[in-house]
Amino acid sequence: MTLILENVSKSVAGQTHIHPTDLTLDPSTMNVLLGPTLAGKTTLMRLMAGLDKPDTGRIVWRGEDVTGMRVQDRGVAMVYQQFINYPAMNVRDNIASPLKLKGASRAEVDRRVSEVAEMMRLTPFLDRRPLELSGGQQQRCALARALVKDAGLVLLDEPLANLDYKLREELRAEIPRIFAESGAIFVYATTEPEEALLLGGNTAALWEGRITQFGPTPDVYRRPVDATTARVFSDPPMNFLAMEKRDGEILFGDNHRAPATGTLAALADGHYTAGFRPNHLELERTEGDPIGFHTRLKVTELTGSETFVHLDHHGEDWVGLIHGVRDLTPGADITAWLAPRHVYVFARDGGLVAQAPYAEAA
């Protein structure tokens, strides 16, 4: 049941939505498409589903070239951000509708609906209509209708985006369980790095129609192959700073110096870009010889137990994620502290060339 995309590309009205792409999804895997709006996630899913035909390349599903096959013949299920249920039908008939279209027997319909409803925790609500359900229950109903088809490939296009926080958290916790029980290939599109980390499995980082990296989710997060992937898999985005290696020292930004130790000692002399995650900026000096950068506070955002601080560092926009609620004045001069041990080092072309010892564990 492997899904293979070989040199697949897609353009619309002369604009490239997906550059030539190779991707292999193995059976019984959870696969997250992570990227900002317009990165190409939905287009890639439509190609997988057969809703669109690629301009180049081919799609192989279950060992068969399905590039020109109709979507209804592929055994694929798709759930959209705008979940759709039939309002005049009860939950039982909503879930059963794909089976009835296929001409399944009454006994088969009853068995499959009962199994999937139990999996989705919808058994007590089978006789209700969708509008009598909560938002999370309605989305579970839409998911159940997709799963009852026994599709080997289930495509979820930002399925939780329109739900409130509590419902999103509830379904995020349930989807890995549902995936494990179904045995299908799941492909889940999201703009949120946190969601990718919660879902686990594999992640494909997308940027402007290109997959910049694909692999186990923790590996893509901890070891991004380039600065673009690091931007995609960080919310807020990773901060960047000009850096130079010279004579056993690392020079950051406005001539701050630190010894080149650990993996940084092996760098060739030259100019690089340092990257660091928002949670590694501190407003107080910590242990480990951190470097203090002079910045100006632009704005703060309180999230409850944490504070986002937006900083101007000589024209560069930085974001820090600081524990606790901070009462700070916009426009104030602030020293932001960064320990070199948390730095990723990128070459001028954006490729990752080194990680300091603790960056991987961040």
- What is the ordering of alpha helices and beta strands? EEEHEEEHHHEHEHEEHHEEEEEEEEEEE
Find the count of extended strands (DSSP E, 2+ residues).
21
Strand proportion: 35-45%
Overall, the morphology is elongated
Number of helices, where a helix is a run of at least 4 consecutive DSSP H or I residues: 8
Give the CA-CA distance, first to last residue: 35 Å
Sketch the major β-sheet.
Answer: 6 strands, mixed
The helix/strand class is alpha+beta
Mean pLDDT across the residues is 89
Rg value? 24 Å
Strand neighbour order, sheet with most strands: 6-7-8-3-9-10
Spans where pLDDT lies below 50 across 5 or more residues: none
* Helical fraction: 10-25%
Describe the structure.
There is one protein chain. With 362 residues, the protein is of the alpha+beta class. 23% of the residues lie in helices and 35% in strands. The protein contains eight helices and 21 strands. The strands form four sheets. The chain has a six-stranded mixed sheet, sandwiched between helices. Strands 13-12-11-14-20-21 form a six-stranded antiparallel sheet. The protein has a five-stranded antiparallel sheet with strand order 15-19-16-17-18, with no helix packed on it. A hairpin with a 2-residue loop joins strand 17 and strand 18.
